Amino acid sequence: MPYLLLCVEFFIFIFSVLMLLLPSLTHFDLAVVEWLSLHRTVYLNTISITLSTLGGMPFVLFLTIIWCLHQTWYKKYRNVIFISLGLIGSIATVWLLKYIISRPRPPEMYHLVQNYGASFPSAHSAYAAALGCLAIYLSQKHPKRRLIWFCAFIWLLIMGISRIYLGVHFPSDVLAGWSISFIWITLLYLLYAKFSRAKQINF
Description:
Helix content is 78%, strand content 0%. The chain is an all-alpha fold and 203 residues long. The protein is globular, with a radius of gyration of 18 Å.
């Protein structure tokens, strides 16, 4: 599964970069933002604004700390390291790319929330994908893993869509945010799995 996921996410990341560079795809990027802005409702606005708060760095870090404390309680220290490196790496990569690429946000008339930093890639989408990807890899032997995977997928999906709905990101920003976290955490997981196997052989 990790290698297949890695290939898919590399393809998605390349496609998101093409959407950023090719005029025809860039036009489609903006058209999606415009279309969603025409289909807003008070109910959907409330949900999306709430998701914007829940998907921000403060709440994500809070969830991560609680998760790490839970893993520490059960003496799963390698999981704590994996979770911490996974999230920190995703955050660092996303903000580095924001700084390097410096893509402007969609026009301000579409914004429903205040935003910070450049548009590409979407940090909220990357954070959601990081938590989702970590949950997927760490729950592979869990009896309710299918439910966990489903919840993880729904979480990152609605978070990404909400960023476009709120008018603060293009679809390509969201695709890039998702793919960056999945690529980084999958590479980290492969290293983590290799280390675990080597340790078992030594013992």
